[in-house]
Amino acid sequence: MKFFKADLHIHTCLSPCAELDMSPKAVVGKSLERGLDIIAICDHNSAENVEASIRAATRCDLRVLPGMEINSIEEVHSLAIFESVEKVYLMQSMVYEHLKGTNRAELFGDQVVANEWDEVEGFNDRLLIGAVDLKLSDIIREVHRLGGLSIASHVDRPSFSVPSQLGFIPPDLEVDALEISRPDKWEAGKQQIPGIERFSVVSFSDAHFISDVGRISTRFLMESPDFDEIRMALLGESGRKVEGLIA
Description:
By secondary structure, the chain is an alpha/beta fold. It has one domain: TIM Barrel (Alpha-Beta Barrel), CATH 3.20.20. Helices cover about 25% and strands about 25% of the residues. The protein is built from eight helices and eleven strands. β8 (about 175-180), α7 (about 185-190) and β9 form a beta-alpha-beta unit. The longest helix is centred in the middle third of the chain and has 13 residues, at about 85-95. It is globular and about 45 Å long.
């Protein structure tokens, strides 16, 4: 087994709050520059730039996993990461079915669908910054039904997290891991989130700016940079494990 450096929470120019220079090609280039082995594209409530990101890395030594960051009716963000594009599109269909409203680019920003050559192919007019009318528990259940991984986003932040929106970590929360945004502050602050000891803890960049890609990452000890290996590492199975948070 060997160590793999992963940033599994990266946005592209499809997310309304991300910079327009966060194209699939640019994200892949910066990921390689930062020495990442695995990334996941997790735009807000959409996966329409996933395929372009995968194609941009076709000739690179970088594994790109398809994902989304979904905003529940409680305004809790969670990552949904899958092994295949087909599965993430099934999740996207469910999200779109429960996502209301139309984007106002002048308020929230453009939502650019781009190809792997930095060319604009269109604009998504859904209100991707909004919340879907699904409970967090329903979202997690569907992610798992499709064989995906569910990770609660930035649980140490004062907004859009499980503790901030629900007030605590429910004892029946069935996510596969919890993401923290500040690993450098973690040892001092983890006692503030009761129940976190029940979960694997990871840390990713949540990059909305190209300079932030890979700025924070997690090191996994695994046999290969594959989806099933990540699942085993989060569960601590067969010697695989989360080895360290990198800031």
